[in-house]
Automatic annotation (TrEMBL):
PANTHER family according to UniProt: BIFUNCTIONAL UDP-N-ACETYLGLUCOSAMINE 2-EPIMERASE_N-ACETYLMANNOSAMINE KINASE (PTHR18964:SF149), ROK (REPRESSOR, ORF, KINASE) FAMILY (PTHR18964)
UniProt record similarity statement: Belongs to the ROK (NagC/XylR) family.
UniProt keyword annotations, A-Z: Kinase, Transferase
GO molecular function: kinase activity
Any coiled-coil regions, as ranges: none
Originating organism: Mycolicibacterium chubuense (strain NBB4)
Name by which UniProt lists this protein: Transcriptional regulator/sugar kinase
The keyword Repeat is assigned to this record: no
Top-level taxon of origin: Bacteria
InterPro entries per UniProt: ATPase_NBD (IPR043129), ROK (IPR000600)
Upper classification of the organism: Bacteria, Bacillati, Actinomycetota, Actinomycetes, Mycobacteriales
Gene3D superfamilies xref list: 3.30.420.40
Length: 418
Protein backbone atom coordinates (compact mmCIF):
# COMPACT_ATOMS: atom_id res chain seq x y z
CA UNK A 1 0.00 0.00 0.00
CA UNK A 2 1.44 3.35 -1.04
CA UNK A 3 1.82 5.87 1.80
CA UNK A 4 -0.84 8.55 1.64
CA UNK A 5 -2.99 6.84 -0.99
CA UNK A 6 -6.48 8.35 -1.00
CA UNK A 7 -5.46 11.32 1.16
CA UNK A 8 -5.25 14.95 0.02
CA UNK A 9 -4.14 18.25 1.55
CA UNK A 10 -5.83 21.54 0.67
CA UNK A 11 -3.76 24.68 0.26
CA UNK A 12 -5.39 28.10 -0.04
CA UNK A 13 -3.96 31.42 -1.24
CA UNK A 14 -5.82 34.59 -0.20
CA UNK A 15 -5.28 37.37 -2.73
CA UNK A 16 -5.37 40.81 -1.10
CA UNK A 17 -5.56 44.36 -2.39
CA UNK A 18 -4.99 47.16 0.08
CA UNK A 19 -5.05 44.45 2.80
CA UNK A 20 -8.60 43.46 1.85
CA UNK A 21 -9.15 39.95 0.40
CA UNK A 22 -10.30 39.99 -3.21
CA UNK A 23 -10.12 36.33 -4.25
CA UNK A 24 -9.05 32.89 -3.07
CA UNK A 25 -7.32 30.04 -4.91
CA UNK A 26 -7.27 26.49 -3.58
CA UNK A 27 -5.30 23.43 -4.65
CA UNK A 28 -5.54 19.81 -3.59
CA UNK A 29 -2.28 17.86 -3.44
CA UNK A 30 -1.24 14.43 -2.28
CA UNK A 31 0.97 13.90 0.76
CA UNK A 32 4.03 14.16 -1.47
CA UNK A 33 2.81 17.73 -2.26
CA UNK A 34 4.51 17.69 -5.66
CA UNK A 35 1.50 17.54 -7.97
CA UNK A 36 -1.73 19.52 -8.08
CA UNK A 37 -4.67 17.13 -8.22
CA UNK A 38 -7.28 19.89 -8.45
CA UNK A 39 -7.24 23.69 -8.48
CA UNK A 40 -9.98 26.33 -8.36
CA UNK A 41 -10.57 30.00 -7.60
CA UNK A 42 -13.39 32.33 -6.66
CA UNK A 43 -13.78 36.04 -6.07
CA UNK A 44 -14.57 37.49 -2.67
CA UNK A 45 -17.33 40.08 -2.51
CA UNK A 46 -17.51 43.00 -0.12
CA UNK A 47 -19.80 41.19 2.34
CA UNK A 48 -17.43 38.22 2.52
CA UNK A 49 -14.47 40.46 3.32
CA UNK A 50 -16.12 42.07 6.36
CA UNK A 51 -14.31 40.79 9.43
CA UNK A 52 -12.84 37.94 7.35
CA UNK A 53 -15.42 35.50 8.72
CA UNK A 54 -17.05 35.37 5.30
CA UNK A 55 -13.66 34.53 3.82
CA UNK A 56 -13.54 31.48 6.09
CA UNK A 57 -16.89 30.31 4.70
CA UNK A 58 -15.71 30.93 1.12
CA UNK A 59 -12.60 28.84 1.78
CA UNK A 60 -14.63 25.91 3.08
CA UNK A 61 -17.06 26.05 0.17
CA UNK A 62 -14.22 26.11 -2.36
CA UNK A 63 -12.24 23.29 -0.71
CA UNK A 64 -15.29 21.04 -0.26
CA UNK A 65 -16.37 21.70 -3.84
CA UNK A 66 -12.90 20.90 -5.20
CA UNK A 67 -12.75 17.63 -3.29
CA UNK A 68 -16.18 16.63 -4.63
CA UNK A 69 -14.94 17.35 -8.17
CA UNK A 70 -11.79 15.29 -7.56
CA UNK A 71 -13.83 12.40 -6.18
CA UNK A 72 -16.18 12.45 -9.19
CA UNK A 73 -13.35 12.75 -11.72
CA UNK A 74 -11.39 9.91 -10.14
CA UNK A 75 -14.43 7.63 -10.16
CA UNK A 76 -15.09 8.51 -13.81
CA UNK A 77 -11.47 7.71 -14.69
CA UNK A 78 -11.72 4.33 -12.96
CA UNK A 79 -14.95 3.60 -14.82
CA UNK A 80 -13.32 4.60 -18.11
CA UNK A 81 -10.40 2.26 -17.40
CA UNK A 82 -12.86 -0.59 -16.84
CA UNK A 83 -14.68 0.19 -20.08
CA UNK A 84 -11.37 0.29 -21.96
CA UNK A 85 -10.29 -3.15 -20.74
CA UNK A 86 -11.35 -5.88 -23.18
CA UNK A 87 -12.73 -8.78 -21.16
CA UNK A 88 -12.12 -11.21 -24.00
CA UNK A 89 -8.53 -10.07 -24.65
CA UNK A 90 -7.35 -9.71 -21.03
CA UNK A 91 -9.92 -10.87 -18.46
CA UNK A 92 -7.42 -10.55 -15.59
CA UNK A 93 -6.85 -6.85 -16.30
CA UNK A 94 -10.58 -6.26 -16.60
CA UNK A 95 -11.23 -7.97 -13.28
CA UNK A 96 -8.49 -6.01 -11.51
CA UNK A 97 -9.86 -2.70 -12.76
CA UNK A 98 -13.39 -3.66 -11.72
CA UNK A 99 -12.06 -4.42 -8.25
CA UNK A 100 -10.35 -1.01 -8.12
CA UNK A 101 -13.60 0.69 -9.08
CA UNK A 102 -15.57 -1.26 -6.47
CA UNK A 103 -13.01 -0.43 -3.78
CA UNK A 104 -12.96 3.30 -4.54
CA UNK A 105 -13.85 5.58 -1.65
CA UNK A 106 -13.83 9.40 -1.59
CA UNK A 107 -10.52 11.08 -0.80
CA UNK A 108 -9.87 11.93 2.84
CA UNK A 109 -8.99 15.56 3.58
CA UNK A 110 -5.86 15.46 5.73
CA UNK A 111 -5.89 19.17 6.55
CA UNK A 112 -6.08 22.72 5.20
CA UNK A 113 -3.23 25.22 4.92
CA UNK A 114 -4.05 28.90 4.32
CA UNK A 115 -1.53 31.63 3.53
CA UNK A 116 -2.28 35.33 4.02
CA UNK A 117 -0.42 38.57 3.43
CA UNK A 118 0.10 39.34 7.12
CA UNK A 119 2.41 38.19 9.94
CA UNK A 120 1.33 35.02 11.72
CA UNK A 121 2.33 34.07 15.27
CA UNK A 122 1.16 31.10 17.36
CA UNK A 123 -1.24 30.17 14.56
CA UNK A 124 -2.98 33.54 14.62
CA UNK A 125 -2.78 36.53 12.31
CA UNK A 126 -0.81 39.18 14.18
CA UNK A 127 -2.08 42.73 14.41
CA UNK A 128 0.10 45.43 12.88
CA UNK A 129 -0.09 49.05 13.91
CA UNK A 130 -0.91 51.14 10.85
CA UNK A 131 -1.09 54.90 10.53
CA UNK A 132 -2.98 57.40 8.41
CA UNK A 133 -4.25 56.26 5.05
CA UNK A 134 -3.69 52.54 5.58
CA UNK A 135 -6.70 50.28 5.13
CA UNK A 136 -8.07 49.08 8.45
CA UNK A 137 -8.01 45.30 8.68
CA UNK A 138 -10.02 43.24 11.17
CA UNK A 139 -8.91 39.61 11.24
CA UNK A 140 -10.78 38.98 14.50
CA UNK A 141 -12.50 35.61 14.56
CA UNK A 142 -11.09 34.36 11.25
CA UNK A 143 -8.97 31.54 12.70
CA UNK A 144 -11.70 30.28 15.04
CA UNK A 145 -14.38 30.48 12.36
CA UNK A 146 -12.23 28.61 9.85
CA UNK A 147 -11.41 25.81 12.29
CA UNK A 148 -15.06 25.55 13.34
CA UNK A 149 -16.07 25.10 9.71
CA UNK A 150 -13.66 22.17 9.41
CA UNK A 151 -14.93 20.51 12.60
CA UNK A 152 -17.88 18.18 12.04
CA UNK A 153 -20.92 17.44 14.18
CA UNK A 154 -19.05 14.60 15.91
CA UNK A 155 -16.36 17.11 16.95
CA UNK A 156 -13.84 15.47 14.59
CA UNK A 157 -11.31 18.10 13.54
CA UNK A 158 -9.69 18.55 10.15
CA UNK A 159 -6.55 20.52 11.13
CA UNK A 160 -6.17 24.06 9.79
CA UNK A 161 -2.82 25.90 9.63
CA UNK A 162 -2.53 29.60 8.77
CA UNK A 163 0.79 31.02 7.56
CA UNK A 164 2.30 34.24 6.21
CA UNK A 165 2.71 34.25 2.42
CA UNK A 166 6.51 34.47 2.14
CA UNK A 167 7.03 32.25 5.18
CA UNK A 168 4.99 29.67 3.29
CA UNK A 169 7.27 30.04 0.27
CA UNK A 170 10.27 29.54 2.58
CA UNK A 171 8.79 26.31 3.95
CA UNK A 172 8.12 25.17 0.37
CA UNK A 173 11.72 26.00 -0.60
CA UNK A 174 13.30 23.97 2.21
CA UNK A 175 10.84 21.14 1.47
CA UNK A 176 11.83 21.09 -2.21
CA UNK A 177 15.51 21.09 -1.20
CA UNK A 178 14.75 17.87 0.74
CA UNK A 179 15.97 19.69 3.89
CA UNK A 180 19.53 19.38 2.61
CA UNK A 181 20.12 23.17 2.82
CA UNK A 182 19.55 24.02 6.50
CA UNK A 183 19.88 27.82 6.20
CA UNK A 184 18.16 29.83 3.51
CA UNK A 185 16.33 33.12 3.06
CA UNK A 186 13.39 33.56 0.71
CA UNK A 187 12.09 36.91 -0.52
CA UNK A 188 8.91 37.66 -2.41
CA UNK A 189 8.26 40.85 -4.36
CA UNK A 190 4.53 41.23 -4.87
CA UNK A 191 2.45 44.00 -6.38
CA UNK A 192 2.15 46.06 -3.21
CA UNK A 193 4.79 44.73 -0.84
CA UNK A 194 8.02 42.84 -0.21
CA UNK A 195 8.30 40.06 2.35
CA UNK A 196 10.83 37.55 3.54
CA UNK A 197 10.99 34.12 5.13
CA UNK A 198 13.96 32.75 7.07
CA UNK A 199 14.88 29.10 7.62
CA UNK A 200 17.68 28.36 10.10
CA UNK A 201 18.78 24.87 11.09
CA UNK A 202 15.99 23.50 8.90
CA UNK A 203 13.16 25.33 10.70
CA UNK A 204 11.22 28.49 9.93
CA UNK A 205 12.02 31.39 12.25
CA UNK A 206 9.32 34.00 12.79
CA UNK A 207 10.73 36.07 15.66
CA UNK A 208 9.27 37.18 18.97
CA UNK A 209 5.89 38.30 17.66
CA UNK A 210 5.68 36.94 14.12
CA UNK A 211 7.18 39.95 12.32
CA UNK A 212 10.63 38.57 11.54
CA UNK A 213 11.80 39.28 7.97
CA UNK A 214 9.32 42.13 7.37
CA UNK A 215 11.98 43.47 5.02
CA UNK A 216 9.48 45.64 3.16
CA UNK A 217 9.58 47.99 6.16
CA UNK A 218 13.35 48.43 6.25
CA UNK A 219 14.46 52.04 5.84
CA UNK A 220 16.66 52.22 2.73
CA UNK A 221 16.21 55.77 1.42
CA UNK A 222 16.87 58.38 4.12
CA UNK A 223 20.13 59.08 5.94
CA UNK A 224 20.02 57.60 9.47
CA UNK A 225 18.98 60.12 12.09
CA UNK A 226 17.17 62.47 9.71
CA UNK A 227 13.48 63.29 10.11
CA UNK A 228 12.57 61.15 7.10
CA UNK A 229 14.29 58.13 8.62
CA UNK A 230 12.82 58.30 12.11
CA UNK A 231 9.54 60.16 11.68
CA UNK A 232 6.11 59.14 10.44
CA UNK A 233 4.05 60.89 7.85
CA UNK A 234 0.98 60.57 10.02
CA UNK A 235 -1.24 60.48 6.96
CA UNK A 236 0.18 63.53 5.18
CA UNK A 237 0.51 63.25 1.41
CA UNK A 238 -1.41 59.98 1.37
CA UNK A 239 -2.89 59.45 -2.12
CA UNK A 240 -6.59 58.74 -2.53
CA UNK A 241 -7.66 55.15 -2.06
CA UNK A 242 -6.98 53.20 -5.26
CA UNK A 243 -4.86 55.89 -6.91
CA UNK A 244 -1.26 55.13 -8.04
CA UNK A 245 1.52 55.49 -5.46
CA UNK A 246 4.95 56.83 -6.37
CA UNK A 247 8.35 56.53 -4.69
CA UNK A 248 7.55 59.72 -2.76
CA UNK A 249 4.36 58.42 -1.18
CA UNK A 250 4.61 56.81 2.27
CA UNK A 251 4.53 53.12 2.99
CA UNK A 252 1.30 51.40 4.06
CA UNK A 253 2.60 51.65 7.62
CA UNK A 254 2.78 55.44 7.24
CA UNK A 255 6.55 55.90 7.13
CA UNK A 256 8.75 57.16 4.31
CA UNK A 257 11.61 55.50 2.48
CA UNK A 258 10.83 51.85 3.15
CA UNK A 259 11.63 49.07 0.69
CA UNK A 260 7.91 48.77 -0.05
CA UNK A 261 7.92 52.33 -1.39
CA UNK A 262 10.49 51.47 -4.10
CA UNK A 263 10.90 47.81 -4.96
CA UNK A 264 7.35 46.75 -5.90
CA UNK A 265 5.72 46.66 -9.32
CA UNK A 266 2.93 49.04 -8.25
CA UNK A 267 5.43 51.69 -7.08
CA UNK A 268 7.48 51.38 -10.27
CA UNK A 269 4.33 51.82 -12.33
CA UNK A 270 3.18 54.76 -10.21
CA UNK A 271 6.55 56.49 -10.48
CA UNK A 272 6.52 56.16 -14.28
CA UNK A 273 2.84 57.04 -14.62
CA UNK A 274 1.92 53.94 -16.65
CA UNK A 275 0.73 50.40 -16.03
CA UNK A 276 3.40 47.93 -14.93
CA UNK A 277 3.01 46.00 -18.19
CA UNK A 278 3.74 49.21 -20.13
CA UNK A 279 6.61 50.09 -17.77
CA UNK A 280 8.31 46.80 -18.69
CA UNK A 281 8.51 47.93 -22.33
CA UNK A 282 10.12 51.34 -21.64
CA UNK A 283 13.78 52.14 -22.22
CA UNK A 284 13.97 55.85 -21.39
CA UNK A 285 16.53 57.35 -19.04
CA UNK A 286 13.83 58.01 -16.45
CA UNK A 287 12.69 54.39 -16.68
CA UNK A 288 16.25 53.08 -16.30
CA UNK A 289 16.81 55.24 -13.21
CA UNK A 290 13.48 54.09 -11.77
CA UNK A 291 14.10 50.37 -12.23
CA UNK A 292 17.66 50.73 -10.98
CA UNK A 293 16.53 52.56 -7.84
CA UNK A 294 13.88 49.92 -7.19
CA UNK A 295 16.46 47.14 -7.57
CA UNK A 296 18.92 48.86 -5.25
CA UNK A 297 16.22 49.15 -2.58
CA UNK A 298 15.45 45.43 -2.74
CA UNK A 299 19.14 44.49 -2.79
CA UNK A 300 19.88 46.67 0.24
CA UNK A 301 17.23 44.83 2.24
CA UNK A 302 18.62 41.43 1.22
CA UNK A 303 22.13 42.65 2.06
CA UNK A 304 21.02 43.53 5.61
CA UNK A 305 19.66 40.00 6.07
CA UNK A 306 22.85 38.51 4.61
CA UNK A 307 25.03 40.36 7.09
CA UNK A 308 22.91 39.30 10.05
CA UNK A 309 22.19 35.62 9.36
CA UNK A 310 24.54 34.70 6.45
CA UNK A 311 22.13 32.24 4.74
CA UNK A 312 23.56 29.48 2.57
CA UNK A 313 21.00 30.17 -0.14
CA UNK A 314 18.96 33.22 -1.11
CA UNK A 315 15.86 32.75 -3.28
CA UNK A 316 14.01 35.79 -4.63
CA UNK A 317 10.57 35.45 -6.24
CA UNK A 318 9.98 38.30 -8.71
CA UNK A 319 7.38 39.27 -11.31
CA UNK A 320 8.47 37.48 -14.49
CA UNK A 321 9.14 40.77 -16.29
CA UNK A 322 11.75 41.71 -13.68
CA UNK A 323 13.37 38.31 -13.22
CA UNK A 324 13.51 37.48 -16.93
CA UNK A 325 13.36 40.69 -19.02
CA UNK A 326 13.35 40.09 -22.79
CA UNK A 327 16.83 39.61 -24.28
CA UNK A 328 15.97 40.41 -27.87
CA UNK A 329 15.06 44.03 -27.12
CA UNK A 330 16.78 46.23 -24.48
CA UNK A 331 14.43 47.57 -21.80
CA UNK A 332 14.87 49.51 -18.58
CA UNK A 333 13.51 46.54 -16.61
CA UNK A 334 16.83 44.79 -17.24
CA UNK A 335 18.40 47.23 -14.73
CA UNK A 336 16.43 45.82 -11.78
CA UNK A 337 18.15 42.51 -11.02
CA UNK A 338 21.74 43.71 -11.63
CA UNK A 339 21.13 46.61 -9.25
CA UNK A 340 19.74 44.27 -6.61
CA UNK A 341 22.59 41.79 -7.13
CA UNK A 342 25.21 44.53 -6.77
CA UNK A 343 23.90 45.39 -3.30
CA UNK A 344 23.58 41.75 -2.25
CA UNK A 345 27.03 40.74 -3.43
CA UNK A 346 28.59 43.78 -1.74
CA UNK A 347 27.30 42.64 1.66
CA UNK A 348 30.03 41.54 4.05
CA UNK A 349 28.13 38.31 4.70
CA UNK A 350 28.48 37.33 1.05
CA UNK A 351 32.14 38.27 0.59
CA UNK A 352 34.08 35.83 -1.55
CA UNK A 353 31.02 34.07 -2.96
CA UNK A 354 30.01 34.05 -6.60
CA UNK A 355 26.43 35.18 -7.18
CA UNK A 356 25.46 31.93 -8.89
CA UNK A 357 26.54 30.01 -5.78
CA UNK A 358 23.94 31.47 -3.46
CA UNK A 359 21.54 33.92 -5.18
CA UNK A 360 18.62 32.77 -7.35
CA UNK A 361 15.88 34.85 -8.97
CA UNK A 362 12.71 32.91 -9.69
CA UNK A 363 10.18 34.44 -12.10
CA UNK A 364 6.48 34.34 -11.30
CA UNK A 365 3.72 35.23 -13.70
CA UNK A 366 0.37 36.38 -12.33
CA UNK A 367 -1.11 33.04 -13.38
CA UNK A 368 1.57 31.10 -11.47
CA UNK A 369 1.53 33.09 -8.23
CA UNK A 370 -1.75 31.96 -6.68
CA UNK A 371 -1.37 28.19 -7.32
CA UNK A 372 2.26 28.25 -6.12
CA UNK A 373 1.37 30.08 -2.91
CA UNK A 374 -1.57 27.73 -2.35
CA UNK A 375 0.70 24.70 -2.75
CA UNK A 376 3.15 26.31 -0.31
CA UNK A 377 0.29 26.61 2.19
CA UNK A 378 -0.44 22.90 1.77
CA UNK A 379 3.21 22.09 2.52
CA UNK A 380 2.95 24.26 5.66
CA UNK A 381 0.07 22.08 6.84
CA UNK A 382 2.18 18.97 6.35
CA UNK A 383 5.19 20.58 8.05
CA UNK A 384 3.04 21.78 10.93
CA UNK A 385 1.63 18.29 11.44
CA UNK A 386 5.12 16.80 11.56
CA UNK A 387 6.40 19.41 14.02
CA UNK A 388 3.33 18.98 16.19
CA UNK A 389 3.72 15.20 16.21
CA UNK A 390 7.37 15.64 17.22
CA UNK A 391 6.30 18.16 19.91
CA UNK A 392 8.79 20.76 18.70
CA UNK A 393 6.20 23.48 17.99
CA UNK A 394 5.36 24.35 21.60
CA UNK A 395 1.66 23.83 20.85
CA UNK A 396 -0.92 22.46 23.25
CA UNK A 397 -3.68 21.44 20.85
CA UNK A 398 -7.25 21.72 22.07
CA UNK A 399 -9.82 19.20 20.86
CA UNK A 400 -12.84 21.19 22.00
CA UNK A 401 -12.82 24.18 19.68
CA UNK A 402 -16.25 23.29 18.31
CA UNK A 403 -18.00 24.33 21.49
CA UNK A 404 -15.91 27.48 21.81
CA UNK A 405 -16.83 28.68 18.33
CA UNK A 406 -20.45 27.51 18.08
CA UNK A 407 -21.86 30.86 19.21
CA UNK A 408 -19.80 32.78 16.67
CA UNK A 409 -20.83 30.37 13.92
CA UNK A 410 -24.53 30.87 14.77
CA UNK A 411 -24.09 34.65 14.85
CA UNK A 412 -22.60 34.55 11.36
CA UNK A 413 -25.53 32.48 10.08
CA UNK A 414 -28.03 34.97 11.56
CA UNK A 415 -26.18 37.95 10.07
CA UNK A 416 -26.27 36.33 6.62
CA UNK A 417 -29.95 35.38 6.96
CA UNK A 418 -31.68 38.15 8.97
Amino acid sequence: MRFGRGVVIAGVHVEQRGNIPTSITAVLVGLDSTRELAVGSRDINADDAHGWQGVAHAIRELVVGLKAQLDARTRDELQASVDAADADFDPVLRERREQELAAFTPFELFGVGVEVGAPVFDGRIASIARTGGATRVDFHGFEEELQALFTDERNAITPVVIENDVNALAVLAIHEEHYAVPDLAVFGVFDEGVGGGLVLDGRLRRGGSGTAMEVGHLQVVHIPGTSGAIGSNGGAHQPAQGSPRTFSDPCECGRDGHVDTRATSSRIAGELGVSFEDALTLNTEKARVTFRSAGFALGRAIAHVSNIVNPTRIIVYLPAGLARPPKDEPTAAAEYCPAASAEVCAAFGNAGRERAQFLTYRPLTKEQTAPLCARAAAVCLLQGFIEHALRVDGCSFSTNRKADTAVRHDQYAVSKNP
